[in-house]
Amino acid sequence: IVPPGGTVLDCFAGSGTTGIAAMLEGRRSVLIEREPPYIAIIRRRLDAARQGVEADYEEPEQPHDLEAAA
């Protein structure tokens, strides 16, 4: 539980839903994400949320050969 004005930490930010929820509830957030496609999604979604609109996004493509991607 984070008090109003507090900071929420999300170390696996994904598409940024936790950051958007924190912003809408009057909290700050620190989002950690290492995958560039998801960072781009987070930025678009946070910008849209600041403007009061919902951003559409597509899931980044996942490699078909997971062993080759490792």
Q: Can you walk me through this structure?
A:
This protein is α+β, with helices and mostly antiparallel strands and 70 residues long. 39% of the residues lie in helices and 11% in strands. The protein is built from three helices and two strands; from the N terminus they run βαβαα. It has helices spanning 17-24, 36-50, 66-69; strands spanning 7-10, 28-31. Strands 1-2 form a two-stranded parallel ribbon. It starts with 6 loop residues before the first strand and ends with a helix. The mean pLDDT is 88.
Blueprint (SSEs and pairs):
Elements: E1 7-10, H1 17-24, E2 28-31, H2 36-50, H3 66-69
Parallel strand pairs: 1-2
Helix pairs in contact: 1-2
Strand element count: 2
Residue stretches low in confidence (pLDDT < 50, at least 5 long) are none
Helix segment tally? 3
The strands making up the biggest β-sheet line up spatially as 1-2
Which band does the percent of strand residues land in?
A: 5-15%
3D shape: flat
- Helix proportion: 25-40%
pLDDT averaged over residues: 88
Question: Could you tell me the radius of gyration in angstroms?
Answer: 14 Å
Biggest beta-sheet profile = 2 strands, parallel
What would you call the structural class?
Answer: alpha+beta
Written as H for each helix and E for each strand, in order along the chain, the element string is EHEHH
Distance between the termini: 36 Å
